[in-house]
Amino acid sequence: MSTLTKSESGTAPKAGSAFLSVHDLQVRFRTEDGIVKAVNNLTFDLEKGKTLGIVGESGSGKSVSNLAVMGLHNPRNTTIEGSITLDGQDLLRASQKDLEKLRGNKMAMIFQDALAALSPYYTIGRQIAEPFMKHTGASKKEGRDRAIEMLRRVGIPQPQTRVDDFPHQFSGGMRQRAMIAMALVCDPELLIADEPTTALDVTVQAQIVDLLKDLQQESGTSIIFITHDLGVIREIADDVLVMYAGRAVERGTMREVLKSSQHPYGWGLLSSIPRINASVDIPLMPIPGTPPSLLNPPAGCAFNPRCAYRELVPGDKCETERPPLAPANGHLSACHLTDEQKQSILTEQILPRLSS
Amino acid sequence: MSAEQTSLTKAKETPAASGSPLLEVTGLTKHFPVMGGFPFKRQVGAVQAVDNVSFTVGAGESLGLVGESGCGKSTTGRLVTRLYEPTSGSIKYLGQDITHAGRKELAPIRSEIQMIFQDPYSSLNPRHTVGTIITNPMEINGINPPGGRDARAKELLEIVGLNPEHFNRFPHEFSGGQRQRIGVARALALNPKLIVADEPVSALDVSIQAQVVNLLQGLQRELGIAFVFIAHDLSIVRHFSQRVAVMYLGKVVEIADRDSLYSSPRHPYTHALLSAAPDADPDNAAAERIRLTGDVPSPLNPPSGCRFRTRCWKAQEKCATEEPPLIQLAGNAEGHLTACHFPEDGSSKPVGASSVPKARDAAELKPKAAKAEGTPKAEGTPKAAKAGAKAEGKAEAEGKTEGKAEGKAEAEGKTEGKAEAKTDAKADAKAKGEKSED
């Protein structure tokens, strides 16, 4: 389905196949309390026209890694290492000026809270037209026409009049649409959607997911879709990256990760969400404990304090040695359990619980 | 942290009154006035947050309230706890009318109806220790448990799965899930009979949500506490509540037992909500997605007749002129009430159907024009046996009392008409400007 499954173990062969290639990305923040290792050794590729879903809890580094792709971190207190290559261009070595040419043009981002991301002072139309005018040198009139066209494309009724409205006059779903219009105004080749549906109702969420899928089909945009909702992942993603405590713990196609997860954290996520058609008499199986602090992450596997299968690994390997992201039964997972153990836990304990 | 079950066993006696409901809400209405005008402020309109809502909650039962944001579910919760003063209607707690009860009258009842709030960050006082937060309600209500309040607070901390040694810590030292547990302990401090939980898990991380849901479920089972569980997540409500009420724009559009509602929804809105809920299993083909277009209309100026008609694919002229009463439709299980002129034929089971594995790739089937087809085709005939989910489906379809439903319809219709006339008179051109109130 994609290069994600093939390109493996450290050196990813990114000979033109991948549109976006993130390799060994590290993001560190200097804070008063010490250095926060927000993202560690993150590697992934994204092909043109594909969607990568990134799943993880708050603080797992999913937003931070994508802000790094966009070059939106404050360089004063952030150290970014590794490499991020977009269409052959190294984004980490690029100058601010070059990045400015890319942002909003070749790559664009949709934020979670549309009301906070839109300026209350300018009309929707002006905010949509601004990147278009800046990147293409279009006139105000052309910018306005383009804004109307974009609003129509994202399904806002009466775009000719709504273009002059302010963000507060829009409802939550419409604001999110307006922000999608703003992100897509220059036909970007990479769209990063950071929890675009989390604050929305299910019905509106379904509308937005459909809209993104349609737009992707029209324009062949690559999408990185960040969410914590596995149901949404199933709707939109081709490939899935599961993050925990700043690291990728599992990576594979959507079907592989949701149907035959190979990591205890993935199992925990799958069995802790109630299913709308599962038996209600079976209690949910929560993941015990809480996500670790990134100031002082646990040694070894970061998930080990919450892991239910720690005893199955001989010795104290989980506490001392960090498992590499290695192929296991078809896709990548970072866990010390042997392939046979994972497969037997999956088929004997996890799947029966999910399908009951 | 998940070892909450152990100390729960010392349950107090479950409320015995099984005959009369614990909470009885009839025709509950809350209109927030909108003031305007110069120089003298006068009422120019009203946000009809909750309009003629009726339901009952039995002792030890859990009623789920579901709906989109702005549908009035939180307002209903706050009316029940009497944090708001109802505009009209009545709330009866154990037979006692508390609709407009005064402060003194309410005092003994307040301790029996407790609330858990959505945001565990803003609902705990940052300047109080956990101990103070939990003992305060006891102090105010003059409750002196044997062994002292502090001992009781520590016991409660243990019940909700926190370390009793955290008694002297401040809320900021805890994570979101732990704070929500503190909120639960505070609600339990007065031995309530009814807890109104207003989106207790939606602010929490996925892996933590299940911890809190399991905790609340354990409490409900062991202590026999009744819950009004407010949420927008249909799968969590289904997991938690025996009965579910679906709200839309201040009205209950459908209320039923869990099994009946999820397996054979009759109201188009319920159907659409269920079909929009994302499912994490790639093998469950999303059989037919019903796409609702547009947004919830403003409660300042709700549509006439059926409030859902502006987004409904079945709407006809009748829907605009006549408000559908909340009645038991033919073919529905006992207690399954629906407010719709042209109900779905409950036989097409969107939930059960979606558990049928489809051969086609999930990504391909997205019949967007599902709106166009009048009735959803019953394409999910039970093929492969994923028995568990489906068995509950059809069983209770039969067994209704026609005559009763009829009579009720008339009664409802009358009151509805009255309310309608009132709201029409009030509806103001002013409302048009504020399209996006929610």
Description of the structure:
Chain A has 356 residues and is α/β, with parallel strands linked by helices. Among the domains of chain A are: 114-185; 258-355, no CATH class. Chain A contains 14 helices and twelve strands. Chain A has helices at residues 3-6, 62-70, 96-102, 114-117, 124-136, 140-153, 159-162, 172-184, 202-219, 230-236, 254-259, 264-272, 317-320, 339-355; strands at 20-31, 34-46, 51-55, 78-86, 89-90, 107-110, 190-194, 222-227, 239-244, 247-253, 326-328, 331-333. Chain A has an eight-stranded mixed beta sheet, sandwiched between helices. In chain A, strands 2-1-4-5 form a four-stranded antiparallel beta sheet, with helices on one face. In chain A, helix 5 (124-136) crosses helix 6, helix 6 crosses helix 8 (172-184) and helix 8 packs parallel to helix 9 (202-219). Chain A is globular and about 70 Å long. Chain B has 438 residues and is an alpha/beta fold. Chain B has two domains: 6-241, 3-Layer(aba) Sandwich (Rossmann fold); 259-429, no CATH class. Chain B is 31% helix and 17% strand. Chain B contains 13 helices and twelve strands. Chain B has an eight-stranded mixed beta sheet with strand order 6-7-8-3-9-10-12-11, sandwiched between helices. A four-stranded antiparallel beta sheet of chain B has the order 2-1-4-5. Mean pLDDT of chain B is 76; it is low at 1-18 and 348-438.
